[in-house]
Structure formats: C-alpha cells, structure tokens
Design a protein that fits this description.
This protein has about 475 residues and is an all-alpha fold. Helix content is about 80%, strand content about 0%.
C-alpha cells in the first residue's frame, strides 16, 4: 500500500517525539554519574563500571530489539506499540533512576543504580530503534523521507541541548540547596513532558505501508567491520573522537563546581554549555557548507581534528596558567565547532565505506555499517564514563557532605582534574588525527573512482542478464 504526503500535524508529532526522547537520553547520559557519585556518594569506580557494563550490554540488546520489532505484527503496526510502551516504561524508569530512596545506602545504593540504569538502557532501546525505523512506514521515498529524517535529527539535537542548558538551573530552582530533590522533580517534569508528546505521536502517526526490516546481529557487525578496513578505520576514529569529547562533557560540571566554584557556579557551567552548544549547531548549519565550497570532505575532517586538538591545547594553557574562567569560552567555541563538523562528516564517511565495501567484498551492508556506528558511539560513552570515574576516584573529587557545601579543590586533586579534562582528551584527539590521516583513503578522487567502477560493474551484470 502506498503512502500519502505527510501533513503538518504528522511532522509536528514526529519532531516533538524526537525532542522528548532525546531529553530523556541527555538527562541520563550526562547527569547520572554526577547524581549518584557526587550527590549520593556512590563510589566513582563502581559507577564507572556500571556505566561501561550497561553500554556493553547494549551491544547485544540493540540487535535483539531490531529482531523483535521486525517480527512484530499488530493492528497498530510493527513500530508504534514499541515506541509507546518503550517510552512510557522509560519515563517511569528515568524518574526512579533519579529518585533513589534516602534510606538506601552503601551496597544497596550501588545495586539500585545498576538495576535502574540497565533497565533505563533496555526501555530506551525499546523505543529508540523503532522510532527511527518507523520513518519508511509512513513516508514516501526520496525528498520527503530525507526531510523528515533531518527534522527528527534536528529536533533530537534541540531536545538534548535544552536539557544540557536547563538541568542545573532547574535542579537548583526546584530543590534549592538540596540537589537530590531538585533532580527528582526535574526528572519527573521531563518524564511527564515526554510521555505526553509520545502519546500525541502514537495517536497521530499511522503506519501506511509495510516495511521489511533487515535485522543485524553482533556477528554481522564484526564480520562486516573486519572485512572492510575503511569501516574499521572510521569505527576507531568515532570511538576516539567521542571518548575525548564525552570525557570533557562528563567532567565539565565537576570543573565548574570544584575548580571555578562560587555560589553561582551552575550558572557559569550553563553558560559554558550554551556557548559550546551554539557553536556546535552553527558549525553544522553554516560552517560546514561554507568550508565544503573550498575543501574536499577529508580535508575539512582533518582540519576539524587538528582544530579540536588545538582547542584543547588552548584549554590546557588557560587552565594551568590560571587565567579567568571566562577565557574558557574561547576553546569552547573552537572545540564544539570542530566537533559539529566531525559529527556531520562521520555519517558521510560511513556511507562512503559502504560503497567501498561493496566494491571490495561484493556485498552492500548499509544496515550493518550504521548499526556499527550506534554500537561504537555507545561504547565510547561507556569508556569515557569509566575514565571520568577513575579521575574522580583517584583525585578524591566529591562533595564534602559533612559540611553540605562544595569545597574548591587544591593540590593534586585540582591538578588531576585539570589534566583529565584537558590533556587526556587532547592526546586522544591527537591519536584520532593519526589514525584518520594515516589510514583513511576515501577522498573525493577515490570515491569517484569507486563510484565509476560500481556503475560499470552494474552495467555488465545488467547486460549479461539481458542476454
């Protein structure tokens, strides 16, 4: 059965759903370590292991959810039931994740964090994979589908940015000096909002056609990865870039709280996030098209990698020289702008590795390659959380709960945090530069050659089939 053109109501429903879904994602991934370690006092190493283990579990959970969705048959379609049930379950789990009972402590609190964070990953995946998979089921191929996908990604970015900017201000407003209560009520507000918009999405969007979903196993992912050296290069580059960036993102709140300090530290942290987020968005929307007029894609990517490394070098100099914290906006603009360029190009380069793999191995593996992207991004998130946790534990960075106030760090603790938030990501970006420049070879000229060879191969096959 064909599909009719999307109306404004359907587009709005999909965009709102993306906003709500990624608000939940950003709240959990950006603040769960801070909530349990800094506010509740859970051992940092324990939290790091929990976060990494959950991401490894996702490597098996994500493909399984793809299989389940592919085999689902209901009068509401394949995807809508899972989006609705998964999101409502995720809103409940998110609220409980940030509402740890005060009477639980010690090992009980560690167990509580582990159970609900893993449940959070399971319920989020229940909704996330069907949410993006449903697009072909209610759109026409071509421009309409591409535009809706772009709308969804843009709205998801907006949802994540809202949480990044608003969380600490809202937490302080809702809980006063009690951050624990502030997070509880803020999580409730985000959960209610997401539940409402996903309910609206579920009753508005109708699956208008049947979609056969190609499921991908973990075995498929690794087989495709190790048979395609360019896909392997990109996977390693993605892991390195995201690990470096996530380390900074995880530790920024600690830096502003314990190194910058002051009664309004969370306002300063929020402004840093606003400057960085705006720079990232502008680079994706304006700088990327501008640079592409003068440079081929691989040169833009190399420039962004080197630029991010230089940004971290400036960041390091400002931190260790002891310049005013307002100077940090300079490296923030550089680092986040470069990261925006990298995020756009990573998707483009992964698509190019599909063509390369088809020419080299004789099979086209779009679904497998882009499943690898999801896997390695989540893996990078887990690794960065473990690194951040190691820093927090090693250098004793935590709230002095006996006095109820945050003390500024001094001595080795301060220097350890400074190294972790600046030098470590800078070195990781330098390694990413080396890996990409040394091993990635799919520039514009090479892609033209590959495209021509694939075209010629298809012509030969068509000629033979016509004989």
């Amino acid at each position: 059965m064909g599909t009719t053109a999307l109306n404004k109501k359907e587009k709005a429903a999909y965009g709102l759903g993306a906003i709500g879904k990624d608000m939940m994602y950003m709240l959990s991934t950006s603040y769960v370590l801070y909530y349990y370690q800094d506010i509740l006092g859970v051992n940092a190493w324990a939290m790091g292991i929990i976060l990494l283990a959950a991401r490894i579990f996702d490597a098996f959970n994500d493909p399984l959810m793809g299989v389940i969705a592919a085999k689902t048959k209901t009068k509401w379609g394949k995807f809508r039931p899972w989006i609705f049930i998964g999101t409502l379950s995720n809103t409940l789990v998110t609220f409980l994740l940030f509402s740890a009972p005060p009477k639980i402590n010690g090992g009980g609190l560690v167990a509580y964090a582990a159970v609900f964070y893993i449940l959070w990953g399971v319920t989020y995946t229940m909704a996330d994979i069907p949410f993006w998979s449903i697009v072909p089921a209610f759109t026409k191929p071509g421009a309409e589908r591409e535009q809706l996908t772009q709308l969804g990604r843009t709205c998801a970015t907006i949802g994540g940015a809202v949480v990044t900017v608003a969380t600490m201000i809202c937490v302080m407003a809702l809980g006063g000096e009690d951050e624990r209560q502030g997070f509880k009520w803020f999580a409730l507000i985000i959960s209610i909002f997401t539940g409402i918009v996903i309910t609206y999405f579920s009753v508005t969007i109708k699956e208008k056609s049947t979609v056969n979903v190609k499921t991908v196993s973990v075995k498929d992912m690794f087989k495709a990865l190790f048979s395609n050296d360019q896909a392997l290069t990109m996977a390693l580059t993605i892991i390195l870039i995201n690990t470096a960036f996530y380390i900074t993102a995880n530790l920024a709140i600690y830096y502003y709280k314990y190194a910058v300090g002051g009664a309004g530290w969370y306002h300063n942290y929020t402004l840093f996030a606003v400057v960085g987020g705006a720079s990232q968005a502008l680079s994706m929307i304006f700088f990327f098209p501008l640079l592409r007029k003068f440079m081929e894609a691989t040169k833009v990517f190399r420039t962004a990698l080197l630029g991010a490394t230089v940004g971290y070098l400036i960041f390091t100099a400002i931190v260790f020289i002891g310049l005013p914290y307002q100077c940090l906006y300079i490296p923030a603009v550089i680092i986040f702008s470069c990261n925006g360029l990298l995020m756009v190009l990573l998707t483009i380069f992964l698509a190019d590795t599909v063509d390369y793999g088809e020419l080299k191995n004789g099979s086209r593996e779009e679904s497998v390659v882009f499943s690898i992207q999801t896997l390695v991004v989540k893996f990078a998130s887990g690794v960065s959380a473990l690194v951040a946790s190691a820093c927090i534990s090693t250098f004793h960075i935590s709230k002095d709960t006996s006095e109820g106030v945050a003390k500024l760090l001094t001595g080795s603790s301060l220097h350890g945090l400074q190294v972790a938030i600046t030098v470590v990501p800078m070195l990781i970006f330098a390694v990413a530069c080396y890996v990409f420049i040394k091993h990635y070879k799919l520039d514009d000229k090479e892609m033209d050659r590959i495209t021509n060879q694939l075209y010629q191969r298809k012509e030969i096959i068509e000629d033979r089939s016509g004989e």
